[in-house]
User: Which sequence fits this backbone?
C-alpha cells in the first residue's frame, strides 16, 4: 500500500483555504469522512494513500471540478507551496526546461528521502514523443 507524507495534504489544504476559504476545507474534510485529531495534517507524518484519494474525491465533489481539472489545479499550487516552504532553490536546479525538470525528479526524491524517512516516491522516466512532445512515464 502506498503512503503519502502530510506535505501533500497540507498543500491541498492550503489551496482550498486560500482559494475557497476555511469553511470549504471543513466541508471537504466532512465529505471525505476524515476526522482530524488536531488542527491540520502534519507535514512529516505518513498518511495512507486511501486518505489522499478520499481527499481528492471530496475536493472534486465540493469544488464541482472533474478529476483532471482538480489535479491540474493542485499541481500548479503544489509547486507554489513547495517554493513557499523553502524548496524553491532545489526546484530551480532540476532543469531549465520541462524535459530536464521531469528527468531529474527522481534525483529530487532521492534527496528528499533524507528529510522524509521511509519515503517511497514514484519514479519518472521521460522519452521523446513522435511529434516532438515529451512522454512522461510514471511508476509507483
Assistant:
Amino acid at each position: 500500500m502506498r503512503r503519502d507524507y502530510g506535505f501533500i495534504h497540507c498543500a491541498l489544504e492550503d489551496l482550498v483555504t486560500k482559494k475557497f476559504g476555511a469553511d470549504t476545507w471543513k466541508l471537504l474534510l466532512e465529505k471525505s469522512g476524515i476526522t482530524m485529531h488536531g488542527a491540520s495534517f502534519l507535514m512529516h507524518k505518513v498518511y495512507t494513500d486511501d486518505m489522499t484519494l478520499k481527499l481528492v474525491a471530496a475536493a472534486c465533489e465540493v469544488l464541482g471540478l472533474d478529476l483532471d481539472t482538480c489535479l491540474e489545479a493542485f499541481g500548479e499550487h503544489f509547486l507554489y507551496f513547495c517554493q513557499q516552504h523553502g524548496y524553491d532553490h532545489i526546484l530551480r536546479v532540476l532543469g531549465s526546461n520541462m524535459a530536464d525538470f521531469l528527468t531529474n525528479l527522481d534525483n529530487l526524491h532521492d534527496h528528499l528521502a533524507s528529510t522524509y524517512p521511509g519515503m517511497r516516491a514514484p519514479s519518472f522516466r521521460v522519452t521523446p514523443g513522435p511529434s516532438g512532445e515529451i512522454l512522461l512515464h510514471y511508476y509507483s
Observations:
- Residues 67-92 form the longest helix (26 residues).
- The two ends are 10 Å apart (CA to CA).
- The longest strand covers residues 123-128.
- The helical segments are 6-20, 22-32, 49-63, 67-92, 98-103, 105-112.
